[in-house]
Amino acid sequence: MPLGNRYRTAPGAGTLAALLLVLIFGSPFYADWAQKNTDPDTAGGWWLRLLAWPHWRFSSSDSVREVVAADLKAILLVVLTALFLILLPGSQLARARGTISQFFAGWAAYIFAGGFAALLTTLILANPSLLGAFRAAGEGATYGLFVGWIIGIATLGGRRGVG
């Protein structure tokens, strides 16, 4: 019996999509490429650079605290996406799978996850400030707004949960 859409959960599919986005576009290779080969003054260049926002890295020139904060932001983005996909009621209240409420719940989960991941990781940096935390949360929410539609599409058609 083939494993089809019948066994896919919306939170699982959205979390997998978030993990893939972070692993691929948050990689040092993609982030370096986007920085060197795109123009931030064009919409396409800005968006390609935005995809690298939850970057992870291993660099000997950075302080351990900065490396941990960057990596923690990427990890928290995936974990918080899973948490918000489970907690948001959009897909719970949908009468049928694949409805627009699942799409918006997935998109909203990524916006919230981006904002909270940035906020939390900013607080562990050296000399954190409330203004810096607010700015970082805004950057994370911006990332979620412009990239989260991918998570919304991934959650379409999935079952609500395990059970």
UniProtKB/TrEMBL annotation:
The chain crosses the membrane at residues 12-31, 67-88, 100-120, 140-158. Keywords: Membrane, Transmembrane, Transmembrane helix. This is Uncharacterized protein.
